[in-house]
Amino acid sequence: MPEIILRDAVVADDWQVLRPAADGPAVVPAGRVIIPLPVWLDEQPGLAARDDVGVWLAGTDDPSKIAPSLTALSLIAIDFPKFTDGRGYSIAYLLRSRFGYRGELRAIGDVLPDQLFYMKRVGFDAFAVRADKDIRQALRSLRPFTDAYQGSWDNAVPAFRRHDRAWPPAQNKS
To answer: What SS3 class is residue 8?
Structure first.
């Protein structure tokens, strides 16, 4: 069974990601499945009662389309088709800050260990690291820094506002 990082621990992943063919209708299988947003929007009336369905968003998807369903979804994934595509960071931040999503927010696709610290800062709490990378080493990369200068989802107050400093600074009289 594949493994993911979930809330700072490596765990077995019992969810499957549905990636339907472009030329045919998607069939949502039984069991824990993460489906693309267009499939969710088309099949929502039949899927609303299932608690084993999550939704994944592409970088081109508008997160406001899923806003009315956020309380019903225990898992939302954001797909990174390649590591250089940063649109998923903005979507994650919007889901957490503007739309108030509190369930599992998972990064899927081309997810590399050196991205995890920044992904966590914008709201991700689960990571499906690319299969050719060591997941335990990736787990260690979640804590490469002791502090961050910028404010973000995990700490909205920037570093310069977190420290009480006298201004102007004292002059060295040596």
So the answer is: coil
